[in-house]
Amino acid sequence: MTDKCQYVRSDLSHCRANRMRESHFCFFHDPAMAAKRTLSRKAGGKHRRIPTPADSAPLRLSTVSEVIVQLENTINRVRDGHINAKDANAIGCLSGILLKALEQGRVEERLTALEQILHRQTQAESDLEFLDGGLNDES
Questions:
Q1: What's the structural domain count of the chain?
Q2: Residue at 8 is within a domain
Q3: At what angle do helices 85-138 and 64-79 cross, to 10 degrees?
Q4: Is the residue at 2 inside a domain?
Q5: Largest CA distance in the chain
Q6: How far apart are CA 49 and CA 66, in angstroms?
Q7: Domain enclosing residue 5, as ranges
Q8: Could you count the other beta carbons within 10 Å of the beta carbon of residue 41?
Q9: Environment class of residue 102 by beta-carbon count within 10 Å: exposed (0-12), middle (13-18) or buried (19+)?
């Protein structure tokens, strides 16, 4: 007996899945498995997501280091099966956006600091010119 499922599709091609022991068909085509297939379909989406506890505190992600810690945690939770890849992908995408926003915030802070320094220098030069002009008028 062949190891492949004996089901023949409407286009006359054979199913290429491995057959189950004690059957000529795979799980999806064995008539004796119809009830189990139905239960499996119904249960399919029920255990996909492990909910976050309702009392968990919001994450503080205001620094690059905090985002890195969360990403490390997410990677480890995917690896041990506590979070699915789809949720992890969303967390990774949002983390990337957050990291860009944090970088933009740092750039804006640096630009503001430079603008303040430039303004103080310009003001100091204006004051010196004023004083220097006043001294020249007295002589």
A1: 1
A2: yes
A3: 170
A4: yes
A5: 117
A6: 24
A7: 1-42
A8: 9
A9: middle
pLDDT tens, position by position, for the chain (139 residues)? 579 999 999 999 999 999 999 899 999 999 999 999 888 888 776 655 555 655 567 888 889 999 999 999 999 998 888 888 898 999 999 999 999 999 999 999 999 999 999 999 999 888 888 777 766 655 5
Q: Are 65 and 71 in contact (CB under 8 A)?
A: no
Report long-range pairs for 47-56 (Cβ below 8 Å, ≥24 apart): 48/84, 49/84, 49/87, 50/82, 50/83
The span from the CA of 99 to the CA of 65, in Å, is 10
Residue that is written with structure tokens 């979070």 in the block: 83
